[in-house]
Amino acid sequence: MSTSAKKRNFPLDQVRRHLEPGPIVLVSSRWRGNENIMVMGWHMILGFSPALFGCYIWEGNHSYAMLRQSRECVINIPTLDMLDAVVGIGNSSASSGINKFHEFGLTPEPALSVKAPLIRECYASFECRLVDDRQIDEYGLFIWEIVQAHVAANPKCPQTLHYRGEGEFVVPGSYVSRHSDFKPQNL
Amino acid sequence: MSTSAKKRNFPLDQVRRHLEPGPIVLVSSRWRGNENIMVMGWHMILGFSPALFGCYIWEGNHSYAMLRQSRECVINIPTLDMLDAVVGIGNSSASSGINKFHEFGLTPEPALSVKAPLIRECYASFECRLVDDRQIDEYGLFIWEIVQAHVAANPKCPQTLHYRGEGEFVVPGSYVSRHSDFKPQNL
């Protein structure tokens, strides 16, 4: 968890480079003085500029009301070295009274544009504001605009965690570039 | 591309095991006698049962009108051995008159419940019907119900392709199980 100090401002129209591959993310929230973290795997990019991001959140999650009422969150991307924390967070609830930052050794850091905290140990953090809540009741679908992006320069090839259900994760092994085979407009 | 003969019926409420990790997919369509394939990376699971799946499709894609009018598609998951075809499809358009199945050595196979074809060479194929078109105009967001699922028994750990923009793909290296650390209701 040594990438914490290296996060830098990152272009909003390029956040797809980190979210489109499909990693699970840690959603941090803050509402009325309480902070929380949840694990989330059902999400997608919805636009480059503005940088739109959609995700499904189950109403049974403790974070659901905090996110809906605060209308803000931070989407943080964890890596393999954080697997214990990820599994722990995914199997606990703030309704039991625990503080997940403290319980799982994570560090909240102030964001620039929202009150929800960044998670220092994650290599990438995206500050979000809720821009459309009309699909929440029917689909649990929150549509966010990413308003600030922070990404560490290293690692170049982060060991993100991709969830496949049943407690199993897929971890990247190699990065393959076919850049020269693409037409510029298709990159 | 030897998994073609091995696809079997797969439980609809478990399709998240293949789509949640975030692979790019090949969307096959059929409308008025024409078949087409497009590459797509912006998608998410939206529900277990019914098995709901959301995806973004740009209106500039030749497939856009075919999908919107036929209200059907098949979502096929390619693997690393198909990278040439994936890059080729991503950099060509049916508007040029080419047949992408023929051009890229892929084999259409009849689906069970939709007219769009399965792609034989993909290890997994999910037949879909459009169930909600109300978010298309504003967000390009198609919401589908997966009505048939076909998945090969092997490979157990498919070398799916996860796109990160700029012509670069992430490929799975390892599968990590923490099944025993999960509460049953959280799997």
List the helices and strands and how they pair.
The structure is a homodimer of 187-residue chains.
Chain A: E1 7-9, H1 16-19, E2 25-31, E3 34-40, E4 43-47, E5 52-56, H2 62-70, E6 72-77, H3 83-90, H4 100-103, E7 108-109, E8 118-119, E9 124-132, H5 136-139, E10 141-152, E11 162-163, E12 168-177
Antiparallel strand pairs in A: 1-10, 2-3, 2-6, 4-5, 5-10, 6-9, 7-8, 9-10, 11-12
Structural account:
The structure is a homodimer of 187-residue chains. Chain A has 187 residues and is α+β, with helices and mostly antiparallel strands. Chain A has a single domain (4-186), classed as Pnp Oxidase, Chain A, CATH 2.30.110. Chain A contains five helices and twelve strands. Chain A has helices at residues 16-19, 62-70, 83-90, 100-103, 136-139; strands spanning 7-9, 25-31, 34-40, 43-47, 52-56, 72-77, 108-109, 118-119, 124-132, 141-152, 162-163, 168-177. In chain A, the strands form three sheets. In chain A, strands 1, 2, 3, 4, 5, 6, 9 and 10 form an eight-stranded antiparallel sheet that branches. The first copy, chain A, is globular, with a radius of gyration of 16 Å. The model of chain A has no long low-confidence stretch (mean pLDDT 95). At the A-B interface, α1, β4, β5, α3 and β11 of A face α1, β4, β5, α3 and β11 of B. β12 of chain A pairs antiparallel with β12 (168-177) of chain B, so a sheet runs across the interface.
